[in-house]
Design a protein that fits this description.
Elements: H1 10-21, H2 27-34, H3 38-50, E1 70-78, H4 83-91, E2 96-101, E3 108-114, H5 117-128, E4 133-141, H6 151-156
Antiparallel strand pairs: 1-3, 1-4, 2-3
Length: about 170
């Protein structure tokens, strides 16, 4: 991931919006949706991908719909200097979906998902068995209030006008 953030313009934002709303659309369809030339779509997608703005092309998976309806956030206080060890320990637990290093009272924030409450308890016990974990606290997710989203944030930023006029012909 590059160190310098990419400045987005109106065409970039329109392309990201179209791609988010129509994730299976190809370059030609994205061209129609954004009213820019297909070559522009291709070059912009390449630039956005190279800059890390488009992080991957994976489908968005819903773990609850796949049967893992019990979800929780787990905060971990870990031993001094044990970040690499706890990362290795968490990586082998499939129920740990993601983990972040944080500031504050705890060192790591994890999101876990399981099929049942007993499986959640077993997962929490397994996390606590790491010799690097000093203390853990868990909070169960009852429902999703705001689903993960990025477009409102991007749209709220000062978006530069596009550097050139769209080369889209309407027939």
């Amino acid at each position: 991931m590059p160190g310098t953030p990419l400045a987005l313009d109106q065409i970039d934002l329109a392309l990201l919006t179209a791609l988010t709303e129509h994730p299976r659309a190809g370059d030609l369809e994205l061209s129609r949706l954004t009213q820019v030339a297909r070559a522009t779509v291709q070059s912009r997608l390449r630039r956005l991908t190279d800059a890390g703005v488009i992080a991957d092309w994976d489908p968005t998976l819903d773990v609850a719909a796949a049967g893992f309806e019990v979800q929780a956030y787990v905060t971990l206080e870990i031993s001094q200097g044990a970040l690499d060890e706890v990362a290795r320990d968490l990586a082998v637990i499939p129920q740990v979906l993601e983990a972040y290093v944080t500031t504050g009272s705890y060192d790591v924030l994890c999101r876990v998902a399981t099929r049942s409450h007993p499986e959640l308890q077993a997962t929490l016990v397994r996390i606590d068995q790491s010799s690097s974990v000093v203390r853990s606290t868990s909070v169960m997710v009852l429902s999703v209030l705001i689903a993960p989203r990025v477009l409102p944030l991007l749209a709220s930023a000062d978006v530069a006008p596009s550097r050139r006029a769209p080369a889209y012909r309407q027939d």
